[in-house]
Structure formats: structure tokens, C-alpha cells
Amino acid sequence: MGSAPASEDSPAGGVYLPSGVQTAVKVLIVGHFAVGKTTFVGALSEIRPLRTEEVMTQAGALVDDLAGTKDKTTTTVALDFGRLTLNDSLVLYLFGTPGQQRFTELWQDMTRGALGALVLADTRRLGQSFDVMGVLEELGLPYAVALNDFDDASAEHDLDEVREALDLLPETPLVRCDARDRISSTHALIALVEYLLTRNAGSADDTAGTAVSAGDSELEHA
């Protein structure tokens, strides 16, 4: 789960981007409440992630569904932000969104300028993913789905069964991941990037798609 090594030429131990970076790609990490978005961004970010977590209160229990989250004590109230530099010219900016329905309008605004989204899902609470995917579909933002494996999940569900349960299109990527693990999280992000490349393949003028294509192999070794 360690951070990517900082460039020797980068000042302040990798806090600042290398001078040669020309393209920045915005990717959203979305999902329902307590599905692991903050953990996912933290596992991948090469810089200390920006977090806007607050302690959960009894008042929040009146409006948030806390089922299956007995050990959760904090919640994201605005966003999580992390950065992953793929090569000397391309950087990914990761925006983790709050999961409660009352914050939906907030993260809808965050979709502006995003190339795509990775939806984290929990097999114990699959039904809660529909609202998230519905918003992305309404906004026309392409997405992939990653099942975050929790230690206390009762069983490992077959991916075909999960795909059917979520009513996913055949081309929508569906993978497993452990949001705590950097390698596993990287593979989930690769699934999204490869999907975006496929969608953008027919557009020669799509600068972001071309840049991501150049950095895709770098992501495998991030």
C-alpha cells in the first residue's frame, strides 16, 4: 500500500509535478456510503491524499443508512483527492466522492471535466449501487465497476451473477479489488482506463484518450 516513488527531479519530495507534465486526466472514484472510496484513493495516491472526513454523529444516523457499517466512525463530507503520475507527461487526478445520497448534488458537480468513473461496490449491499450508477448514466459519464472485497463478506459471488444483478451492459468492466491494496487497486483502475481507451479509439481528436493510451503501460507498473 506504499506510495509511488517520487521523482528525483521533483521538488519537495514529489509534492510538485515534474515540469514536463502536459496532460492531466480527472477520474472519479464513486460508490455508496462506506464502500471504501477514501481507502482506495489513499492506497493509490503518490502524495498525501486530501481528505474531508468528519466524525459521524447520532444525528447523521437519522438520514444515513448505517447497515453493515458498525465499525465506521468517520465519513467524507466533500471529497477525497489524490494524484498518480503515470509518466513524465501524464498525471491522473483521483477524486473520491461522498457516498451519502444527501451529497449527490455535490459530487454531480465534480463530474465536470472527468474522463470516467470507477464505481466501488459491496456485494453485501449491491442495491445501494443503483443510484450511483444511475447518476453516471444520466450524465453520460462512462464507468467501470470494482467489487471491493470485505473480510466479513459471507461468500465470494460469481462475477456473472453480480453483473446480472447490477444489470450492467456487456461492455461495462466488472472486476474485483481490495481497496486497501495498492496493486489490487491499480488493476481496477487499469480496467477503467482500458475501457475508456476502447470508447475513445474512434476519436482521433480526443487528446485525453491519446494521452491515457501512452500512459496505460506505465499504470501497470505504478
Automatic annotation (TrEMBL):
Task: Could you list this entry's UniProt keywords, alphabetically sorted.
Answer: GTP-binding, Hydrolase, Nucleotide-binding
Superkingdom of origin organism = Bacteria
> CDD domains, per this entry?
Ras_like_GTPase (cd00882)
The record ties this protein, via InterPro entries, to: Gliding_Motility_GTPase (IPR052705), Gpn (IPR004130), P-loop_NTPase (IPR027417)
State the family named in the UniProt similarity comment for this chain.
Answer: Belongs to the GPN-loop GTPase family.
Q: Return the protein name.
A: ATP/GTP-binding protein
